[in-house]
Amino acid sequence: MHAKLGPWVLGYGAFLVAMGMAGYLSNPEKAATALVSGGTFGGLSMLWGFLIGRGSGWARWAAAGTTALLTAVFAWRGTVSWLAVLGGQEEKVIAALIITAMGVASVVTLVVLLSAGRARAPAPSPAP
Description:
This protein is mainly alpha-helical.
């Protein structure tokens, strides 16, 4: 397993927690879900990173599945947020930026997770 993969996923999880907190702090009356979802999925990603670091190969696939799901959710929520901003709801700019940052981090993390598996794949043996 790629030696830096566990710390990478741990860092991604910590980033999600931090962005959830930032989303909540930007609008505490309306953004409680940002805190809960950032904390939940950030914590889950940190767990995957810890397990990957301990050598659990299945945890990489769990992390990839979770991150793929989050990528889709952030793409959807980011689109909705940016459309609201374009529609004149300037108060949604911070949320749109945070969701976009989480989406970009998710895409990069998904690429890292999937590339780590390919880098470790054995080379095909020559035909007899």
